[in-house]
Specification:
The structure is a single chain. The protein has about 900 residues and is an alpha/beta fold. The chain has five domains: about 120 residues, P-loop containing nucleotide triphosphate hydrolases (Rossmann fold, 3-Layer(aba) Sandwich), CATH 3.40.50.300; about 80 residues; about 140 residues, P-loop containing nucleotide triphosphate hydrolases (Rossmann fold, 3-Layer(aba) Sandwich); about 170 residues; about 220 residues, no CATH class. The strands form seven sheets. A seven-stranded parallel beta sheet has the order 10-15-9-16-17-8-20, with helices on one face. It has a six-stranded mixed beta sheet with strand order 21-22-23-24-25-26, with helices on both faces. Strands 1-7-6-2-3 form a five-stranded parallel beta sheet. Helix 28 links the parallel strand 23 and strand 24. Helix 4 crosses helix 6 and helix 14 packs antiparallel against helix 15. The two termini are about 45 Å apart.
């Protein structure tokens, strides 16, 4: 608790601050958020008094005052005796080096997190006066920390350095120097607890004639209630609606929402509040959000900084494909606006040509390939980066040199792009430049390193830097537990106060003995101190506003929860008692956006004359759902882009098997030739076919099929070929008459290009059309209506004298033909129409009947596409929609009666 000091009311404090420099009052707060809040209160009072200009109040966190006095000392006549203050990045690097020298690198999973924990323990030990007692501890962790900290202390002493943890102790002896400008009075505002180190520093100030005061918490009549909701997401929704209602009732009200786990739920909270406060923001409605989230995010999470790091990663030695893809599509690279569409098409092509990791040189080569969309500006920038990489991004250098090289690399890339940055992006960019300066400063405590290590350190700096863009004051503040301490509101909602979450669990520092922490009174050192701290915080919330709402959820998954014992005694209320109006929805915003016009979009304009790209897939998709065909083949909304994966994906595996079988039958040509080939000759033919197939895939996937993986894949293909040839040997005599033959075909006025896998001539029977499948085959794909597998009928109707069609199921352990024929005896698994055992075979009476009905079906499907049929009409209901990628476009999920797709939460 705070020691007894003279007290004054907040109104008295503000009155003294109005006197400006004459009063000489400096207000200290426990955090920056509270300092800014009090400064806003002071500015509001000055403006309300009719003043146009006034002196800014001297309000700052305790640590900022100590650092200000350190700066005064550095630039005074005593400056030579003042130790150099390490930056947080320099502290981290120094701790890492001490751990490395102690041989801890081999014992720890990760050096950087361990160094960060050491920094926390070092700070705690000095704040609570425990540093001298650590050597008496017997635990392994504490002994290790004592060794590491002694190395750190010795290294910084030899370099005449100090850190934020020891700065108050370093400055306290200098307070008597006349060069330091000490305030006449110090007012402590919002402190729940003052550490022994801070108490000693304040006592030293008092000994030099500085009056130390404590600002009393104002008492007010308050209304508190407790609300129970079903789940945590319901609490966020209710709090957002409540805040909107209070803001609409009084636009000048100060509204607070406390979220204990804000660090984990920040994104969800932002989405829900954005939707409730401004439903039309998804429609690009102008205007700022009326809320501010006090907890910032890592600088590395801001797109402009994330993309800068990815550019450097690519330049330093290659990157994961997704990172390289982000660079290609980045809006912060030169030419991003003018080449927007070209780069999107280039990215789609790269996804089919790159492996899971890509080097800068390989990316340049692929972007310059003959068939790639030509993004001239992007290629120019990537080539400049490649030249810089070979010239400057090699060898070991100091971090100041690496900072210059990183800046030069981004300049060559055209960073930060050609469009005007918004306010948040500009502020993030400015902070990025500050980080480059901080990286250069770390050179004072680090040895030279290579580019990869320097970039990893830069990335760690960006992840450690918590950043929040500054903006206009918002009437609603969303804060975490610590950020809310000392703040005052007109209305306050505190959520998440279940018995398993509040009070918080004890979190003692692992490097400092718990007994020492408990005896010193460190908050959250044990359950007792944690309970006492959270009880004081809860009491502070009750006094923080005229209206205070505490909420807790009843369920967490399958577990049932109870309210925290710290709020269980507060009167319960129902959500309806809080006078919360229903929040407007996005649908309401759409209706407000303009006049509603009803259009019948079930029919599109007919396609232009000429061949339509899409092949047999167009007819398959038109039969499955007319809108799917329209989206894919008219609007260009094809399958979503895929991410490259290590090795071969299923599509590549299918392509290589097709290529192998094509080469195999080009060499064999007939069943008789297969029978006549000896084992050695057949092995040679199979090996040559496999080699050609592998080379056909390596042309566009050079990263695969090399080394051991390539050898194993060749062996797999050879086994697959032998197993399939055994199936072919069981057939009657045949001669292969066409392999991968291409020709156009027209049905219903729609012309597409067909590519036949293979067609055999069976003596005395006719042609046998074969379509290879390496995945799951659909035996009922030839059934009517709206045929699922139209390629075989299309091939059959576009070739003369076809008497059988079949899918060749080339799959390990499942080798088989599945199809229909004019008569029996073509191949095992190919059934005669009208006589077979399957439902499909019984559907047609004769071969002529099958061919005639197939033709009529394909003509009808083609005619529907040509007429612009665009109905959302899935053939098999939800089963058809399950794997369809057009759902966001057709919006079938909005048809609740259809039930095709689960309706996701709006904030997901």
């Amino acid at each position: 608790m705070l020691p007894e000091r003279p007290r004054l009311e907040k109104t008295e404090l503000l009155a003294r601050l109005r006197q400006g420099r004459e009063a000489g009052v400096t207000v200290l707060t426990p955090n920056l958020r509270l300092a800014r809040g009090l400064a806003r209160d002071f500015d509001r009072e000055q403006a309300a008094a009719g003043l146009l200009t006034w002196e800014s109040a001297d309000i700052l966190p305790f640590g900022a005052l100590v650092q200000r006095l350190w700066e005064d000392a550095v630039y005074s006549s005593e400056g030579s005796a003042v130790p150099l203050l390490l930056t947080p990045a320099q502290e981290q690097a120094s701790w890492e080096e001490c751990l490395r020298q102690a041989g801890a690198e081999q014992q720890l999973v990760a050096l950087a997190p361990a160094a960060a924990q050491c920094r926390d323990a070092w700070k705690l030990a000095h704040e609570w006066r425990l540093a001298e007692r650590l050597t008496q501890a017997q635990s392994v962790d504490t002994r290790a920390f004592a060794d590491w900290s002694s190395r750190y202390e010795r290294a910084t002493r030899e370099r005449s350095q100090t850190d934020a943890a020891r700065l108050p102790d370093a400055i306290a002896p200098l307070l008597a120097k006349s060069a330091l400008a000490l305030p006449r009075a110090i007012a402590l505002f919002g402190f729940d607890q003052v550490t022994p180190q801070a108490t000693d520093f304040l006592d030293a100030l008092a000994a030099r004639g500085c009056e130390v005061l404590e600002v009393a918490v104002p008492s007010r009549e308050r209304r508190s209630c407790r609300v129970e909701l079903t789940e945590a997401k319901d609490e966020i929704e209710a709090a957002a609606r409540w805040a909107r209602a209070r803001l609409e009732a009084d636009p000048a009200a100060r509204i607070g929402v406390v979220v204990p786990d804000l660090a984990q739920t920040r994104s969800r909270v932002r989405r829900v509040f954005s939707r409730i406060m401004r439903p039309g923001h998804l429609l690009a409605e102008p205007g700022a959000f009326p809320f501010d989230i006090s907890l910032g995010a890592p600088l590395a999470d801001f797109p402009i900084v994330a993309d800068a790091l990815l550019v450097l990663e690519l330049a330093a030695g290659g990157a994961a494909f997704e990172h390289a893809s982000r660079v290609v599509r980045s809006p912060f690279i030169a030419g991003a606006e003018s080449e927007l569409g070209i780069r999107a098409r280039l990215d789609a092509r790269l996804r089919g040509r790159c492996g899971p990791r890509v080097s800068l040189e390989a990316l340049v080569r692929l972007c310059n390939s003959a068939n790639a969309p030509r993004a001239a500006i992007l290629v120019e920038k990537l080539e400049a980066l490649a030249r810089l990489r070979s010239a400057e991004l090699t060898g070991k250098k100091g971090l100041s040199q690496w900072a210059k090289s990183f800046s030069e690399a981004l300049r060559l890339a055209g960073f930060p792009g050609e469009r005007t940055l918004d306010s948040a992006e500009s502020q993030a960019l400015a902070r990025w430049h500050e980080l480059l300066g901080e990286l250069a400063a770390v050179e004072r405590v680090c040895a030279k390193m290579d580019c990869g290590d320097a970039l990893r350190r830069m990335g760690q700096l960006a992840r450690d830097a918590i950043f929040q863009p500054e903006g206009a004051d918002a009437p609603i503040l969303i804060a975490g537990v610590l950020e809310s301490a000392g703040l005052e509101f007109d209305h306050l909602w505190v959520m998440g106060l279940t018995d398993d979450a509040w009070p918080l669990a004890a979190r003692p520092n692992p490097f400092v003995p718990v007994t020492l922490q408990r005896s010193a009174g460190v908050p959250q050192a044990d359950p007792s101190s944690s309970l006492e701290l959270d009880r004081r915080i809860t009491s502070g919330w009750m006094r923080a506003a005229d209206e205070v709402v505490f909420s807790h959820s009843r369920m967490k998954g399958e577990s049932e929860l109870s309210p925290s014992p710290l709020i269980a005694g507060i009167a319960a209320a129902k959500l309806e008692d809080l006078r919360i109006a229903p929040a407007p929805s996005l649908r309401d915003a759409i209706r407000r956006a303009g006049t509603i016009e009803t259009l019948d979009d079930s029919r599109a304009p007919p396609p232009p004359a000429g061949a339509v790209s899409g092949g047999t897939g167009l007819f398959r998709d038109q039969g499955a759902c007319p809108f799917r065909a329209l989206a894919k083949y008219r609007l260009g909304c094809g399958d979503p882009p895929e991410s490259p994966r290590p090795g071969l994906d299923p599509r590549d595996r299918g392509s290589i098997v097709h290529a192998m079988l094509a080469e195999l039958w080009r060499s064999l040509g007939s069943r008789q030739r297969l029978e006549d080939a000896g084992e050695r000759e057949l092995d040679s033919i199979i090996a040559a076919s496999v080699d050609k197939a592998v080379e056909s895939v390596k042309r566009y996937r050079p990263d695969v099929l090399g080394g051991v993986f390539g050898r194993l894949e060749r062996e797999r293909l050879a086994r697959l070929a032998r197993d399939w040839l055994a199936e072919e040997r069981a057939r009657a005599d045949f001669t292969v008459s066409a392999i991968e033959d291409k020709q156009p075909a027209t049905f219903g006025g729609v012309t597409v290009n067909l590519k036949l896998d293979r067609m055999d001539e069976v003596p005395g029977f006719g042609h046998f059309v074969i379509d290879y499948k390496t995945g799951k085959a659909n035996p009922s794909g030839l059934a009517l209506p709206r045929i699922d597998e139209p390629q075989l009928p299309m091939y059959a109707l576009s070739r003369p004298n076809v008497a059988a069609v079949a899918i060749a199921h080339v799959r390990t352990g499942e080798m088989a033909f599945r199809g229909l024929a004019k008569a029996d005896g073509v191949a095992r698994g190919v059934e005669p129409v009208g006589k077979g055992s399957t439902k499909v075979a019984k559907m047609y009476s004769t071969w002529a009947d099958a061919m005639g009905r197939w033709k009529a079906e394909l003509e009808a499907i083609g005619a529907a596409f040509a007429a612009g049929d665009a109905r959302v009409d899935p053939k098999n209901g939800p089963a058809t929609c399950k794997q369809c990628e057009q759902q966001p476009l057709c919006r079938i999920a909005e048809k609740s009666a259809f039930g095709a797709v689960r309706k996701a939460d709006e904030d997901d």
